From TrEMBL:
Belongs to the SMP-30/CGR1 family. Residues 13-258 form the SMP-30/Gluconolactonase/LRE-like region domain. The lineage of its organism: Bacteria, Pseudomonadati, Pseudomonadota, Alphaproteobacteria, Rhodospirillales. SUPFAM superfamilies: Calcium-dependent phosphotriesterase. This is Gluconolaconase. The keyword Metal-binding applies. The active site is at D200 (proton donor/acceptor). Keywords: Metal-binding, Plasmid, Zinc. It comes from the Bacteria.
């Protein structure tokens, strides 16, 4: 199966795709380009907004106040889009004030309204990153550590398994998730070979299969619940960053990519669509995106 480019967004580092049912649109961020991205499948149009500070991810809020965004400075803030007017603030939380070389890198909300937020070493050298749980009332807890570049996280349909990745070690971990948000039983779920590239962003479908983007691998792979490979979606770009189900029926898989570190255009291996937003119809549906805050 192949994915096709639906918007040549030119993202330096496209990341964090999330479907907004209320806006019937796919949102994402360009971390290195400090932009908010929006794609509307109904008319096939893309739109972007400059951000005063780079956002690393977005999650919709349960109170209807648009999004909570994780910023490069490790702050969580409200992000409001009123028509075509974008505003940032107020601040909700600060993480890792004692680790200025870190930044946030990926997040998701579960069905209880909790956020799961990863951090990373912005220089991608040291295992200074961690995984946090942020309760609906905004109280944080550091629940795992030792990540150089954290990615994911993703949640199984029954809410009992949380997946999280350390990209440089090419390892996707699985945790048992209790109803109260406690993690236990950390274990290696999938380990990439060198020729696979690096596991990046990911999402689960309604059948419990895990879809994983391959940085430096040019594809998204679907893995069965036991961690074995089921199928592959190929892209004409090397650096595939994340994926999310969207569309009114959650039957479209949207895939973000990066122009950063891609082969130069005009060369035999150039990638003119690097940084674009891609999509495919995989024949399965995704899960309703979680929202942050009390349900």
């Amino acid at each position: 199966m192949d994915a096709h480019c639906v918007w040549e967004a030119g993202a330096r580092l496209g990341e964090g795709p999330v479907w907004s049912p209320s806006r019937n649109a796919l949102f994402a961020v360009d971390i290195r380009g400090s932009r908010l991205l929006r794609y509307s499948p109904a008319d096939g149009r893309g739109r972007d907004w400059p951000l005063e500070e780079a956002a690393c991810w977005l999650v919709e809020r349960a109170d209807g106040a648009d999004f909570v965004a994780g910023l490069r400075s490790r702050r969580l803030v409200c992000l409001t889009l009123d028509g075509d007017r974008l505003s940032m603030g107020p601040e909700l939380l600060r993480l890792e004030e004692d680790t200025p070389g870190n930044r946030l890198n990926d997040a998701m909300a579960d069905t209880a309204g909790r956020l799961w937020v990863g951090s990373m070493d912005d220089a991608e050298q040291d295992a200074l990153g961690a995984l946090y749980r942020v309760e609906p009332d905004g109280s944080p807890a550091r629940v795992d550590e030792g990540y150089t570049v954290s990615n994911g996280p993703a949640l199984s349909p029954d809410g009992r398994t949380l997946y999280h990745t350390d990209s440089p070690s090419r390892t996707i971990f699985a945790f048992t998730l209790a109803a109260d948000g406690t993690l236990s039983g950390k274990r290696v779920h999938i380990r990439f070979d060198e020729e696979d590239g690096y596991p990046d962003g990911m999402t689960c479908d309604a059948e419990g299969h895990l879809w994983v983007a391959h940085w430096s691998g040019g594809q998204v792979s679907r893995f069965r619940p036991d961690g074995t490979l089921d199928r592959v979606v190929r892209l004409p770009v090397s650096n595939v960053t994340s994926c999310a189900f969207g569309g009114p029926g959650l039957d479209q898989l949207f895939i973000t990519t990066a122009a950063q570190d891609a082969p130069a255009q005009g060369t035999p291996t150039g990638e003119p669509l690097a940084g674009g937003l891609f999509a495919c119809t995989p024949g399965v549906v995704g899960l309703t995106p979680g929202r942050f805050g009390a349900p």
